[in-house]
């Protein structure tokens, strides 16, 4: 699994594109531009033309595609969340922790205020990985 992770291609997804993808992943259905805005989670909604232009850029990057519905388009992701999270994780590991996985894991545990149940689940996950 670690070898597969290292071989994964780098996917560049800036913050606004990631927020758009999160809306599309969460809704799990093609959405028009206004549908993306209507399902925006941040307090400040982006403008219609901002989202439209970003979707056009995302299509060029093969992150989304669209279906034509009359005169409008409905957009859907062409990449899954796991692919993006692996790429983001790998970049964070390299950029911030110089590839030191233990340092990154320690920072995660220290900085995320995990509950006892979450820590227990994490320990179980690590044990399963160790036993493979």
What does this structure look like?
This protein is mainly α and 132 residues long. It has two domains: 11-77, Arc Repressor Mutant, subunit A (Orthogonal Bundle); 100-132. Helices cover 62% and strands 9% of the residues. It has seven helices and two strands, in the order H-H-H-H-E-E-H-H-H. It has helices at 2-7, 15-27, 33-38, 48-60, 81-97, 101-111, 116-131, and strands at residues 64-69, 72-77. It has a two-stranded antiparallel ribbon with strand order 1-2. Strand 1 and strand 2 form a beta hairpin. The longest helix has 17 residues, at 81-97. Mean pLDDT is 89; it is low at 1-8.
How do the helices and strands line up, and which of them pair or pack?
Elements (H helix, E strand, L loop, with lengths): L1 H6 L7 H13 L5 H6 L9 H13 L3 E6 L2 E6 L3 H17 L3 H11 L4 H16 L1
Antiparallel strand pairs: 1-2
Pfam families: Penicillinase_R
GO molecular function: DNA binding
Organism: Thiospirochaeta perfilievii
Descriptive terms for the model:
132 residues; mainly alpha; Arc Repressor Mutant, subunit A; 2 domains; two-stranded antiparallel ribbon; disordered N terminus; DNA-binding; transcription regulation; BlaI_family; transcription; DNA binding
């Amino acid at each position: 699994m670690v070898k597969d992770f290292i071989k994964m291609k780098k996917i560049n997804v800036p913050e606004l594109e990631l927020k758009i993808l999160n809306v599309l992943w969460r809704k799990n259905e093609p959405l028009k531009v206004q549908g993306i805005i209507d399902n925006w989670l941040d307090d400040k909604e982006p403008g219609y033309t901002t989202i439209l232009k970003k979707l056009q850029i995302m299509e060029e990057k093969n992150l989304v595609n669209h279906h034509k519905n009359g005169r409008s388009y409905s957009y859907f992701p062409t990449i899954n969340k796991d692919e993006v999270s692996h790429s983001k994780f790998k970049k964070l590991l390299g950029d911030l922790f110089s590839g030191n996985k233990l340092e990154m894991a320690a920072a995660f545990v220290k900085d995320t205020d995990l509950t006892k149940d979450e820590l227990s689940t994490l320990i179980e996950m690590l044990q399963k990985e160790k036993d493979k």
